[in-house]
Design brief:
The protein is an alpha/beta fold. The protein has 11 helices and 8 strands. The strands form 2 sheets. Strands 2-1-3-4-5-6 form a 6-stranded parallel beta sheet, with helices on both faces. A two-stranded antiparallel ribbon has the order 7-8. α1 links the parallel β1 and β2. It is globular and about 50 Å long. The protein starts with a strand and ends in a 32-residue tail after the last helix. The C terminus is likely disordered.
């Protein structure tokens, strides 16, 4: 059962989300908040699995609330940003505050439900309508990585200098990566790039001719080394590190000279608000 808190300053939006999400057998809406401060309080009191968070709310906004919830060592709560505003700085700030996903309020019900399940499963989600340009912007802002020689067993060294690159460094994963050298094995680097192309564990296993349990092992190592909470944050770290091409990430498209795998999943438009 996914325990859910909905945070939005508009009562009609909270009611609509509560009806749609609460109708699912495996989702329970345990609380509603009208602003960021209330969302933080409910997260600490109710310990939900996911908070669906609006950005622009009076008082404490959704970005500040996301940062407070994700950075609290006593909480294990993921945040899915749901917003009307398709503004790059808002998307970047929310992701770097630690949000596990970002979805525009024009998404249909199936996409909304899929996003909640994806975030609850630790996979993260990013609305395809903003994915490409956001990943390009992250790449532009990101710091430079230095790759070791592609020898067998080579370590790929990267020191994240996100704070110096103009980004909003609020999430613990980025803070941790900014202060230490991260060494990836050649296999971990392969898994990171396949993950960025949207592949599932089974798809990555088939591509690399290994067992899915092996992929899970490498993903666990990647998240531990980069300090990431979920798959999406791991991909974002790879973008910032310069280890993943922004054109390939999450879209399956290929830059000139690159090779892609997988494909994008079109996001249908609909209305639930």
């Amino acid at each position: 059962m996914i325990r859910l808190v909905i945070a939005d300053d508009q009562a009609v939006v909270r009611a609509g989300l509560s009806v749609i999400l609460g109708a699912e057998e495996d989702i329970e809406v345990v609380g509603e908040a009208a602003d960021g401060a209330e969302a933080i309080a409910l997260a600490r009191e109710l310990r939900p699995d996911v908070v669906c968070m609006d950005i622009r709310m009076p008082g404490t906004d959704g970005i500040a609330a996301t940062r407070a919830i994700v950075s609290d060592p006593d909480l294990d709560v993921d945040v899915l940003i749901l917003t009307t505003f398709d503004v790059d700085d808002d998307v970047l700030a929310s992701l770097e505050a630690g949000a596990a996903g970002f979805l525009l309020k024009g998404a249909d019900e199936d996409t909304l439900l899929g996003a909640v399940h994806s975030v609850a499963a630790g996979e993260g989600t990013l609305d395809q309508r903003v994915t490409r340009r956001i990943l390009r912007e992250l790449s532009r802002r990101g710091s430079r990585g230095v790759l070791a020689r592609p020898d067998t067993g080579a370590q790929h060294q990267y020191t994240d200098r996100a704070a110096d690159a103009g980004g909003v460094s609020g999430h613990a994963s980025f803070a941790r990566a900014a202060s230490v050298d991260v060494a990836l094995t050649s296999r971990e680097l392969e898994v990171l790039r396949l993950l960025a192309q949207g592949m599932s564990n089974s798809e990555m296993a088939a591509h690399l001719y290994v067992e899915p349990t092996t992929i899970k092992y490498h993903l666990t190592g990647l998240m531990q080394k980069t300090g990431s909470r979920d798959r999406l944050q791991t991909v974002l770290w790879g973008i910032r590190a310069g280890l993943v091409r922004p054109c390939e990430a999450m879209t399956g498209e290929v830059e000139p000279g690159g090779t892609g795998a997988g494909g994008s999943r079109p996001v249908p438009r609909g209305a639930w608000v």
